[in-house]
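pasting for the record
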Amino acid sequence: MASYVKTLGDAVVTALNSAGSGAFSESFTAYFDFDPNFEKLSGAETTVVVSLGTSEFSTATIAQDQARDRINISIIKSVAATESGNDADLIDGMISLLEEIRWFFRSELVHESQATESAYLGGESVNRGDLGQRMYRQTLQITFDSYRNG
């Protein structure tokens, strides 16, 4: 099952990266990572990381051959620690971009899976004194329903 969800994660990355110019208000390159964390990142670019969420398979609420796979999509941004400004505006922009991504997948069929629901998982921040940066992460979880043999 994990390989299927990894394949779904890769398909989400492909869909985001091939969305075309103007699909989102901000340009980015998405990539897949099993363990997205701040320690791997540096720079002020907008980073979009797709990672595995959880899966449900063959429960009472879904058909026996249906699975619900959750994919996490995180936006990570950093600003110079010395930069003054309104970080709330930065965070609002990140949440707006997540909302655009949520709407993008609202009717997308990705790797034979349909996006059926989404949930905002919240955000976090960390000071990276070693890089002289403040880093922020906001995460959205999208649930994809798919039919496959267990």
